[in-house]
Write a structure and sequence with these properties.
There is one protein chain. By secondary structure, the protein is an alpha/beta fold. It folds into two domains: 26-188, Rossmann fold (3-Layer(aba) Sandwich), CATH 3.40.50.10610; 199-328, Rossmann fold, CATH 3.40.50. The protein contains seven helices and 14 strands. Strands 1, 2, 3, 4, 5, 6 and 7 form a seven-stranded mixed β-sheet that branches. Helix 6 crosses helix 7 (313-328).
Length: 332
């Protein structure tokens, strides 16, 4: 009799343990609620179809998370209960959890505002910031918190702002998902891709060298963008960039010597060298860090009948842009 009792207890224990283990491995349901605002001409507007929220939900579904349907969120996205939940009120967190059967709530705010972009096209640009927390609804425990800002451009301000918000959601998804993954069973999530590579924009350089060369700063700006692309960096319009590069030409000199030491014929064939020093400023818009340094480019060549080969302003500018790109594109 005792043997049967012991066996029965063991069977019941195995069943209970299996149930507990199965419950522990249950994949949580995640609900994303991000009220979003766009400010145009200093007037804020709420967005009925949030772009950052949509981007995060799309990426989380790709990662394998169980998500609450975004259409269920529409009617309460800008409600007081959501505002209270964002402020950390436990009652509001539980109310949202019960309403959507959500285990984890991703809550936060995102906004975008207009900026200006100069160029041949009438481009509109906007910068966006997103701040998020992933909260365990039952306990109020914060599983992850992150913030990020980025930009977007388009031909209309509304679409530029939406693109800025969408990019913010896309860029923050990976790092947010990795933080949440540390708190849930491994079988509940697939492969999370690495975070997106930082984008680089170049603003016009200045020329304080005393040498007046037509459009040299515009040429240097364009050549730096080209050199960055050749180095493998991801370049974008400045208003959509994570890192901004600019600088000032402080020194620009040249030395020319005639090869023919014959009076009145020295100009026929000459050798020359020129050099340029540029003070570089690299701004990380996410961390507000500034990296400052200088580069000096040197080129040499010949001048035949007044035509330069190897040390023209274009040759010198190209060399300087290559040195700048090599420094900016190195691993950070």
């Amino acid at each position: 009799m005792q043997k049967w009792l012991v066996a029965a207890v063991m069977v019941i224990g195995v069943i209970v343990f299996s149930g507990v283990l199965a419950f522990a491995q249950t994949c949580p349901t995640i609900c994303v609620i991000i009220p979003e605002t766009v400010t145009i001409h200093r007037i804020p507007h709420q967005i009925p179809d949030p772009a950052a929220e949509t981007a995060i939900i799309h990426n989380f579904l790709e990662y394998g998370f169980h998500m609450v349907d975004q259409n269920q969120i529409r009617v309460i996205r800008y409600s007081q209960v959501v505002a209270n939940a964002i402020n950390g009120q436990q009652a509001a967190l539980l109310e949202l959890s019960d309403r959507f059967a959500a285990d984890i709530l991703i809550l936060g705010e995102a906004f975008a505002e207009e900026t200006e972009t100069a160029g041949e096209l009438t481009l509109q640009s906007a910068r966006a910031r997103i701040e998020l927390r992933a909260v365990e609804a039952a306990t109020g425990r914060i599983l992850a918190a992150d913030a990020l800002h980025t930009g977007g451009i388009d031909l209309t301000m509304d679409t530029a702002a939406k693109k800025a918000l969408e990019r913010a959601g896309e860029k923050i998804s990976s790092q947010l998902a990795k933080a949440i993954a540390r708190h849930i069973p491994q079988n509940c999530i697939g492969v999370i891709p690495p975070s997106e590579t930082a984008t680089i924009g170049v603003t016009p350089f200045e020329n304080q060298s005393g040498v007046r060369a037509r459009d040299i700063t515009d040429v240097l700006t364009t050549m730096v963008e080209t050199a960055l692309s050749k180095q493998g960096c991801k370049t974008v319009d400045t208003m959509a960039a994570d890192i901004v590069v600019t600088g000032t030409i402080t020194t620009w000199k040249e030395l020319v010597s005639p090869v023919l030491q014959i009076p009145f014929l020295e100009w026929l064939w000459r050798t020359g060298t020129s050099w340029m020093t540029v003070d570089i400023r690299v701004f990380d818009l996410h961390t507000a860090e500034l990296e400052a340094y200088e580069i000096t480019a040197n080129v040499a060549g010949v001048e035949i009948l007044g035509m330069r080969f190897g040390f023209s302003p274009q040759d010198l500018t190209r060399k300087a842009s290559e040195l700048i790109a090599e420094r900016v594109c190195r691993p950070r």
